[in-house]
Amino acid sequence: MIGLSDHQSNSQKPDKSEQSPDERLILPVLPLRDAVLFPHTVMPLLVGRKRSIRLISAVREEKDIIALVTQKDPATNEPGEKDIYRVGTACIIAKKLEMPDKSAKLIVQGLNRVKIRSITAVRPYFKAEVVEVHDPHVESVTVEALTENILAQFQKLVNESRYLSEEMYIASVNIKELGQLCDFVAFHMKISTTEAQELLEMFDVEKRASKVIEYLNRELQVLELSSKIQSQAKSEIEKSQREYFLRQQLKAIQGELGETDEKSREIEDLYSQIAEAGMPPEAKEAAQKEVERLSMVPPAAAEYSVIRTYLDWLIGLPWSKSTKDSLDLRRAQRILDEDHYDLAQVKERVLEFLAVRSLKKDLKSPILCFVGPPGVGKTSLGKSIARSMNRKFARASLGGMRDEAEIRGHRRTYVGALPGRIIQEIKRVGANNPVFILDEVDKIGADFRGDPASALLEVLDP
To answer: What is this structure's pTM?
Structure first.
C-alpha cells in the first residue's frame, strides 16, 4: 500500500512547528469542481483558476504531495474555507502539462484519505493541517462475503454497460483489500459527486462496501430497464418496417396484375384529411383507430358504411376553424337599432353583456335567456348579436322534441344514426364558436324514450 510516508523522503519535509505529535501534516489544498478523487486511483484534471495555478506551479512533479478536496458548490469560482468538504485525498502529480493560456493539464494519483483539521493559509493558495486516515486490514467472513458480492455485481455491470471495459474487472479482481476495492469500483461507477463524497467520508469499510453494493444494484437496474426499453423500441421498429415492406410488395403485385386499389387510396385520403382537420390529440387518435378498423373491413360489410359515416362527421367538424370576435359596442348598438325598434331594456342588457365580454376574454359558457311571447324578436335578437360580434349564427328548434338522442346523438349501430342537433348545426355553419340559439326551450317534451331537458342540462354544463 502506498502511503504518504513513501513520498516524504522525496517531498518537502514539514516543519517541526507544523507537525503535531500525532503526525499531522501541512499540505497544499486544491479544490475540485464536480469530481472526487479516491485513494489508489488515477484521474486527469484541468486546472484554470489563478489560485490553483499558483499551487501547481509551487509543487514538484512526482515528488510533492497535495490534498484534493471537492468543493460543495461547483458554481463557486473562488471557494472559501466553508465551501470545501473536510475529507479529501492526498495525491501526487504524476504528469503536468502547462498550456499556452496559462492553464494546466494534470494526471494525479491518489494515495490516502486525509481529514482536514484546520485551514492554515488561504493565500497564495490553500494550505491545511491534515491527518491521514488508513483503512484497517480486517479478515472475516463478512469482509469475504462483501468482497465476492462487489466483484460479482461489478462483473455484471462491466458486461452490460458500454462505458466499462473488461480490463476494469480484471484490475478489480487483483485488489486484495476491501476498502481499496470499494474505492476502485466507486471511482468507475456513474454516481453523483455528493454520493462519491459520501463514500469518501465513510471510514468504516463494511458500511462503505454495503453502500457500494447499493449503488451497483441501482446502476444494474437502470441498465436493465434501459435495455428493455431499447429492445421494445427495436421490436416495434422491426414490426413497422416488416408491415411497410409487405404493403409495398402487395402494391407492386397489384400493379403488375393491373388491379386498382381504390380502398388504399381512400384510406390514404382519410389519413391526410384527419391530419389537416386540426383535431385535438384525443379526437385524432380516435379517428386514426377508426381508419385502421376501416382498412380491415371489406367494403361490402354493413360495418364499413357505419365507420365511414362516423369518420366523415369527425373530419367535417370545424375543430380549428373559428371567427374573430368584434366587440365594438357602438357598432353593436347601431346594428341592434337597425334590426329592432324599441326594446330599450333588452338592448341595454345585451350591450352590458358584450361589455363584460370585452373586459373578460376568458368568460366561460356565456348564456343569455330571452323570455317572451312568440313574435317579439327573440330569435332575431340572436341574429343581430351574431352579426355585431362577427360570428356565425346557428339555431336549433327544441319545440316538441321528445327524444334525448336529438341532443346527445344516436348510437352508431342504428340505421341512419346522426349526431345531436347541436353538432349538426356547428358543422353546418363551419365555425366552432357560433352564436347558438336554442329556440323554444320551454316546449321540450318527455316520454318513455327519455327526457331531452336532462340531456340538454348535461350539454350546457360548463
So the answer is: 0.47
